[in-house]
Structure prediction request, 680 residues.
Amino acid sequence: MRVVFPFTAIVDQERMKRALVLCAIYPQIGGVLIRGERGTAKSTAARALAALLPEIDVVADCPFSCDPHQPATWCTLCRERVERGETLPVARRKTRFVDLPVSATEDRVVGTLDIERAIQKGERRFEPGVLAMANRGLLYVDEVNLLDDHIVDVLLDAAAMGVNVVEREGISFQHPARFILVGTMNPEEGDLRPQLLDRFALCVNVEGVRDPAQRAEILRRNLAFEQDPEGFRAEWEPYERQLSEEIAAARERLPHVVHTPRDLLLIAGLVSSLGVDGHRADLVILKTARAYAAFKGRDQITEEDILLAAELALPHRLKRRPFDEDGHLTLEQLAERMEQVRRQVEGNAPSQPASSPEGGTPKKAQRTDGELRDRSRPVGEESAPLQRQTVTRQEGVWWEGGKPVPIGETFRVKRLDTPKDRRERRVGGRRSVTRSARKRGRYIWARPSPGQADDLAFDATLRAAAPHQIERDRSRTALAIHPEDYHRKVRVRRAANLILFVVDASWSMAVAERMEATKGAILSLLTDAYQRRDRVGLIVFQKDRARLVLPPTSSVDLAKKALEDIPVGGKTPLSAGLLLAYEVLCREMLLRPEVRPLMILLTDGAGNVSMSELPPQEEAHRIADLFRERGIPCVVINMEHAAFDQGLAQALADHLGAPCYTLHELKAESLYSTVRSALG
Prediction:
């Protein structure tokens, strides 16, 4: 059996550990999303939490791990067994840790019905999925941002409702799905849509430990664990057992934790004052505050509980535009806002305040993560103070002659579409229509699929079986369907594009007015790509070379940072920029054939640097021909002033086989013309 690194041995990361413990106490909070850079113990913490959780009683042979002491939560199978007079066998086991792979399909997650058995014998037979296995356990989803949106939605629905409902062709089945949902992600790989991000109850942003002493302690503990995993875990077992017992005690105390009407007003006022949409945040703060009060041994929530809960429930719900910096609220900022809300509540709706165990209502909440931090160090070891970091916002600038060039006006770009293609693709998006290889998308027709009941098209299958009913044996069924009658659904959906921005940053583009407009166009197009879940990359060419400033990624934060401090000036190596773009797109097409490429070139077309003996314009045109021959869709945005336009950008677009737009046309209300390519 694999030995797991102890939860209490994780150095620092107190906010992350607090969020995980609270979700373990009260899974109905709705799960926690942990966002952070690589190597910050995200996966380690999730696995370690499951290892220290208390053992649970389960129905021994139930596929859903039903609680034998809670009949109201039993699955359909356990209910039917009891109704038949059976006695449910009871077993005791550790809490399960269920890992959901990124490649999981919807049927693998929610389970499926045996369609063939349902048709031929009229029996309802359910094949459990990941949600069934995770019931009353911990469901861990690494790289949750890379999952299909629909899969994430199903997970969050089950986590919030505590039940999984599977419906297929008019037949339904449901079972309990109460689990601790932990999702982790690296923001550099792209973010979740705001609608899905809001569905995660709690969110924690983690960073690598900066303090040298703590980093050295991380090294020491990891080396000790690698050399002797069992011995290291035995050393930390007292701390693990103590925390496990406290979680179990908090679970028992949780139903008895109460709140006052004043507490509800404080929560509602705090959330409302921050302009958070909807009411989910209010409910999450209340649930989290109750869990924290239970963990601290109290039977009534305090303002401290509310503030600590708000610190986990609000930052990812604050309104921000796609390229704004992540919101971050410190406890001090929340306490100041709470002070304002308290004065309003006490002035307009006097009520008896909820007192803390020490008496009185604290004006400033003090971070009390020390209890968890103390457990993460051997007895006698000093606790290092938290290093607070102030997040400052900086605007991206392009430099011209030592002076910053401001961002030009952004606008809502015309819709950029690409034609439907016939390849089956597994990566979803919102721009290009393509055939789907998964059970997602619009059902448009059916095709024969003998012997394969996967994603069965009932209408086509019934039509195929109908002519043979006279000759087939129907003594045991009303309709005789054989495997050779099966037809599979063919679906279409929108697939994601890889959009590579290629930007001319030479002197010919360095006039401040044009550069402002260029930057505004790029930010507008990047926003459009963000909204449609496209992967984006950025190439800049100037002087004598081209640079891949941003390798293809779905992270809009990285895209924004890549636009900061880009130098402007020098000659125009247009050929180098096109060649690098061609190489990047060909490599991406080889590595990720499921994603459709698109190059957006922002230039005036005035190339004046060659990589060979050919004239600059001829060389650029020859490289542009490669895009058309390879069938890579392109769009040219002519940044030349209309009064001085020499037609260079249009000539380049002709060789690329691409439409050419001006900024004025880009802002028009009408839709983009469809990008013509040989992919259809």
Remarks:
- The CA atoms of residues 149 and 618 lie 45 Å apart.
